[in-house]
Amino acid sequence: MTTVALKPATMAQALTRALRDAMAADPTVHVLGEDVGTLGGVFRVTDGLAAEFGEDRCTDTPLAEAGILGTAVGMAMYGLRPVVEMQFDAFAYPAFEQLISHVARMRNRTRGRMPLPITVRVPYGGGIGGVEHHSDSSEAYYMATPGLHVVTPATVADAYGLLRAAIASDDPVVVLEPKRLYWSKDSWNPEEPQSVEPIGRAVVRRPGRSATLITYGPSVPVCLEAAEAARAEGWDLEVVDLRSLVPFDDETVCASVRRTGRAVVVHESGSFGGPGGEIAARVTERCFHHLEAPVLRVAGFDLPYPPPMLERHHLPGVDRILDAVARLQWEADN
Amino acid sequence: MTVMEQRGAYRPTPPPAWQPRTDPAPLLPDAEPYRVLGTDAAAQADPELLRRLYAQLVRGRRYNVQATALTKQGRLAVYPSSTGQEACEVAAALALQERDWLFPSYRDTLAAVARGVDPVEALTLLRGDWHTGYDPYEHRVAPLCTPLATQLPHAVGLAHAARLKGDDVVALAMVGDGGTSEGDFHEALNFAAVWQAPVVFLVQNNGFAISVPLAKQTAAPSLAHKAVGYGMPGRLVDGNDAAAVHEVLTDAVRHAREGGGPTLVEAVTYRIEAHTNADDATRYRGDAEVETWREHDPIQLLERELTARGLLDEDAKQSARDAAETMAADLRARMNQDAVLDPMDLFAHVYAEPTPQLREQRDLLRAELEAEHADQEGTHR
Fold first, then answer.
1. For A170, nearest residue in chain B (alpha carbons)
2. Which residues contact B223 (CB under 8 A, 6 or more apart)?
3. Whether B222 and B365 share a structural domain
4. What is the three-class DSSP state of A174?
5. CATH number at residue B255
6. Is residue B204 located within the same domain as residue B276?
7. Could you tell me where the beta strands, DSSP code E, fall in chain B?
8. Do residue B203 and residue B149 come from a single domain?
């Protein structure tokens, strides 16, 4: 038996590797977007792809998000598997009509005759000191659009696995890449990268018995940190990383909540009309008789993403999560 | 003496010499829409082609009349008639080879039918039984597109992909005058020109975007002039002259196929009917204007030319009318049959595999249908 040394790798490197492996395995995989070629993307996720596969496979497009996604639709119609990059979360909005009116529903409107295997990569979320329009958490818009799969990795291994699964999917997948985790490192085996299971499975990142933190993407490390800190209070928190927002893994989430009896949903996106409301409702509908307290939400405030010097007050941090857990205890004791 | 000259020393470095990227002159459209019928150019036109165009125009007009009648009978939710624009529709379809693709807008049912799409299946969007009745791959016709101009980037992407694969496929994308104001029109033309994609954009300028006239839509000299800004040729053609539209489109398709890149064609035509049966055209235009355009009817223009040249006798006219009548009778008969719909199909094509959430909802609907069925059984007993 040979053991392969695990090496530290960043999430950005794993994403690059996923694109490279997918392009090498399947000549119909094409990467397109603004700055993805010569520059290798502003986050360098597409670094080296144009050099290795040529500019026809990794294409610098004109600066036009609707055009990027709209032409990807036509490319997919002709049998290619386009992977498009939307440079920053808020830059994707001009492409929303293409996404919602065509990408998400072409399979449906053609009765299954014209599926569109398109992957839309969206660097999202805050915490990197970005100026306005560079830090939005837009997952609720994507989640609300039938026909799209929506995934978001929190670990280096998942970044590789979820992006490979997205590209292999015969349906459009929005891959929300947490910008502030791009440079997070993990011990990872780049020689034999493992794919995760098919899209749609959540995972328990940390087992616990006092309460469940339901979270995803950039908030996963924050929740793990909160769980460590909670030990000082005598709380043993379970952390569930959703990985896939659509489809939603009710099974894993509800199994956890039934074990712990308490749940807090944590995400950066605003609370009102945000993913947490949907998740809390689903958990309540399925686990009401197991709940010792209401499902709480710890989310970003309901405001346009704040300027970078104030973002730390907006982003859900360890203290705010622990306060919510304390409220769960209070609800239980009274 | 200026202050700068008094100070003397400072001389800014001149910027690098500026060069226009493309000579705009060859891209500019002619001042007048190109015409064939009634001009010396008509003698060059292929008689067989003109007769084919004629038969298709007559059939197209009959289709428009029949479909409009079906809206009055409640068989179609809505029908945006292309009466008066049949020359554009027919020429668009006939300018393409079988391997080419058509990207129609919602008013371009006739172009889809002229390309071989079943006349009933071309109407399912408007009938309301499904969004797209036909298989887009069968005749290489993309789904009729309701949002304006959003199908244009699809055409560019498909043509680009075909070229990357080494296929000499051309995409023809159709849009109305109103659609040229949309952002997707701009992005599609820009991508096509930068990529030199084998695409032809056909703008049917029929005078109005629902009620808004062209003068309120654009300040450009013509819609064909917009091509220059993208670096592609713009062509202006009389949209009611089937021979002219066919010639210009065939040229543009050949140009694209040979690697010459995209062309923007503006066909100047007129929407004789209202936008749809839900629209009152008398609120925004006068009868006199409509009458002027009726005088310039595409079928009459071609009929006069063919008759004058002895290429069309009464028998040929009658046979075109008979064929159109047969098509209309068949369309009427099949549209008068109630569509048979399976509600469970609602869940069949959202994803390749339904999500667990959709499976739950599918089970709910199935239970509702079974209960409904049981109720009906009970009532009948």
1. B352
2. B177, B180, B203, B205, B214, B264, B266
3. no
4. strand
5. 3.40.50.970
6. yes
7. 101-103, 171-176, 199-205, 208-209, 212-213, 234-238, 263-268
8. yes
Residues of chain B by 3-state class (helix, strand, coil), percent to 5: 50, 10, 40
B147 interaction partners in chain A (CB closer than 8 Å): 97, 101-102
Q: Give residue-wise pLDDT tens across range A250-268.
A: 999 999 999 999 999 999 9
Given A134, A149, A267, A314, the catalytic residue: A134
Mind listing the pLDDT tens digit for each residue in A272-328? 999 999 999 999 999 999 999 999 999 999 999 999 999 999 999 999 999 999 999
- The answer to whether residues B371 and B295 belong to one domain is no
CATH number assigned to the domain covering A8-188: 3.40.50.970
Chain A interface, best mutation among B126, B158, B347, by max A CB count within 10 A: B158
Domain covering A203-327 in this structure, CATH number: 3.40.50.920
Q: Look up the domain containing B348 and give its range.
A: 343-379
Q: What are phi and psi of A277, to 5 degrees?
A: -65, -45
Alpha-carbon distance B124 to nearest alpha carbon in chain A (angstroms)? 11
Catalytic annotation on A134? Answer: yes
pLDDT digits (tens, 9 = 90+) for B248-293: 999 999 999 999 999 999 999 999 999 988 889 999 999 999 999 9
Residue B4 lies in a domain: no
Q: How many residues does chain B have?
A: 381
Total beta-carbon pairs less than 8 A apart between chain A and chain B = 140
Domains: count for chain B: 2
Residue B158: name the closest of B171, B173, B148, B141 by CA.
B171
Percent above pLDDT 70 for chain A: 96
Residue B171, chain A, CB below 8 Å: the answer is yes
Residue range A308-321, pLDDT digits in tens: 999 999 999 999 99
pLDDT band at B1 (very low <50, low <70, confident <90, very high): low
Tens digit of pLDDT for each residue in A36-71?
999 999 999 999 999 999 999 999 999 999 999 999
Beta strands A185-188 and A7-10 are: antiparallel
B85 and B215 share one domain: yes
Q: What is the DSSP letter of A187?
A: E
In a domain, B166, yes or no: yes
B273 part of a folded domain: yes
Which chain B residue shows the shortest CA-CA distance from A112?
B349
Give the C-alpha separation, B333 to B179, whole Å.
Answer: 34
* Contact state of B184 with A66 under an 8 Å Cβ cutoff: yes
Domain boundaries, chain A: 8-188, 203-327
Going by C-beta distance under 8 Å and a sequence separation of 6 or more, which residues neighbour residue A193?
A14, A17, A18, A21, A157, A160, A161
CB pair distance less than 8 Å for B154 and A70: yes
Chain B: residue nearest A172 by CA? B351
Supply the pTM of this predicted model: 0.95
Both B88 and B218 in one domain: the answer is: yes
Which position has the token pair 């098919």? A198
Cα distances (angstroms) measured from residue B330 to each of A238, B118, B212, B324, B337: 66, 11, 36, 10, 11
- Check whether residue B95 and residue B186 sit in a common domain: yes
pLDDT per position as a tens digit, B291-307: 999 999 999 999 999 99
Please give the Cα distance from B371 to B381 (Å, whole number): 15
Q: How close does chain B come to A60, measured CA to CA in Å?
A: 11
Length, in residues, of chain A: 334
Start-end of H helices in B206-297: 214-217, 226-230, 242-257, 287-294
The answer as to whether B14 is a domain residue is: no
Query: Do B322 and B347 share a domain, yes or no?
Result: no
- Measured between alpha carbons, how far is A143 from B13 in angstroms, rounded to an integer? 54
Interface contact A147-B351, CB threshold 8 A: yes
